[in-house]
UniProtKB/TrEMBL annotation:
<dbReference type="Pfam" id="PF01614">
    <property type="entry name" value="IclR_C"/>
</dbReference>
<keyword id="KW-0238">DNA-binding</keyword>
<dbReference type="InterPro" id="IPR036388">
    <property type="entry name" value="WH-like_DNA-bd_sf"/>
</dbReference>
<dbReference type="Pfam" id="PF09339">
    <property type="entry name" value="HTH_IclR"/>
</dbReference>
<feature type="domain" description="IclR-ED">
    <location>
        <begin position="69"/>
        <end position="251"/>
    </location>
</feature>
<keyword id="KW-0804">Transcription</keyword>
<dbReference type="GO" id="GO:0003700">
    <property type="term" value="F:DNA-binding transcription factor activity"/>
</dbReference>
<dbReference type="InterPro" id="IPR005471">
    <property type="entry name" value="Tscrpt_reg_IclR_N"/>
</dbReference>
<dbReference type="GO" id="GO:0045892">
    <property type="term" value="P:negative regulation of DNA-templated transcription"/>
</dbReference>
<dbReference type="InterPro" id="IPR029016">
    <property type="entry name" value="GAF-like_dom_sf"/>
</dbReference>
<dbReference type="InterPro" id="IPR036390">
    <property type="entry name" value="WH_DNA-bd_sf"/>
</dbReference>
<keyword id="KW-0805">Transcription regulation</keyword>
<dbReference type="InterPro" id="IPR050707">
    <property type="entry name" value="HTH_MetabolicPath_Reg"/>
</dbReference>
<dbReference type="GO" id="GO:0003677">
    <property type="term" value="F:DNA binding"/>
</dbReference>
<dbReference type="InterPro" id="IPR014757">
    <property type="entry name" value="Tscrpt_reg_IclR_C"/>
</dbReference>
<protein>
    <submittedName>
        <fullName>IclR family transcriptional regulator</fullName>
    </submittedName>
</protein>
<feature type="domain" description="HTH iclR-type">
    <location>
        <begin position="8"/>
        <end position="68"/>
    </location>
</feature>
């Protein structure tokens, strides 16, 4: 099988430069060029671009170190990995107790980003969701749980900057109605997606807090036809118990 050829040699050179700076903070242009076996001209052009987009930072002494944007990406990834590892034992227990789809999400760019998913073991119907996709805050269970934890000012800012588009006939697109639901979520500590993202799908979700900081959210998703009043109560009790266990673990 023919090996795939890389696209864009400049990206490979940029990666080399970033690796070099990561291993040698406050390194000079000359040292980078020598270490990466590139000409000074090529190295400088790539460094200027990396500096422009925040991946490297040039000091007054004309030395280079990793930029704030690249470090922020790295730290965010580490935080996500930590959250996945810390919550996994509890989500596994929740999934064993409630044989439905379990999601773990984090807040990213005013959306819920799925970072983990546990499939049911004995159910034939599976959710279409995947790790790596995102959902709006206003129409998802995890998203509404996050919104309910925010201040009134933050919620107003979110509503001013986001159009509440309908995904189904059940999607809440009225800001006043959404605010009313957020008040109820704040009291109950759980949120629902009642066929608001997808028809025939029901989700119950809640946030995960470290102190007062939102570090994630989780949900249980299932086909709506399996939902009964007593089963809904079981779902709520189970997810709140799991939330309490996780928050105790990550204090």
């Amino acid at each position: 099988m023919e090996q795939a050829k890389p696209y864009g040699t400049v990206l490979i050179k940029a990666a080399k430069i970033i690796d070099c700076i990561a291993e040698n903070p406050n390194i000079s242009l000359q040292e980078i060029a020598k270490s990466c076996e590139m000409t000074m001209s090529t190295t400088l052009k790539i460094l200027d671009t990396l500096n422009l987009i925040g991946y490297v930072k040039k000091s007054e002494e004309k030395t280079y170190q990793l930029g704030a944007k690249l470090i922020r990406y790295a730290n965010r990834n580490i935080e996500q990995i930590d959250l996945i590892e810390q919550t996994l034992p509890y989500l596994v227990k929740l999934q064993e107790k409630i044989d439905e789809t379990i999601h773990l999400g984090v807040l990213s760019n005013s959306e819920i980003y799925y970072v983990n998913k546990l499939e049911p073991k004995f159910q034939s119907i599976r959710m279409s969701s995947k790790v790596g996709i995102s959902r709006p805050l206003y129409s998802s269970a995890m998203g509404k749980a996050v919104l309910a934890t925010m201040s009134e000012k933050e919620v107003d800012e979110y509503l001013e900057s986001h159009e509440l588009k309908p995904y189904t006939a059940n999607t809440i697109t009225n800001p006043l109605k959404l605010k009313q639901e957020l008040s109820e979520i704040k009291e109950q500590k759980v949120a629902y997606d009642d066929e608001e993202m997808e028809s025939d799908i029901f989700c119950v979700g809640t946030v995960i807090l470290k102190g007062k900081q939102i570090i994630g959210a989780m949900s249980i998703s299932l086909p709506k036809f399996r939902l009964t009043t007593s089963y809904k109560e079981r779902l709520i009790a189970a997810i709140l118990e799991t939330r309490e266990q996780i928050e105790t673990e990550i204090k």
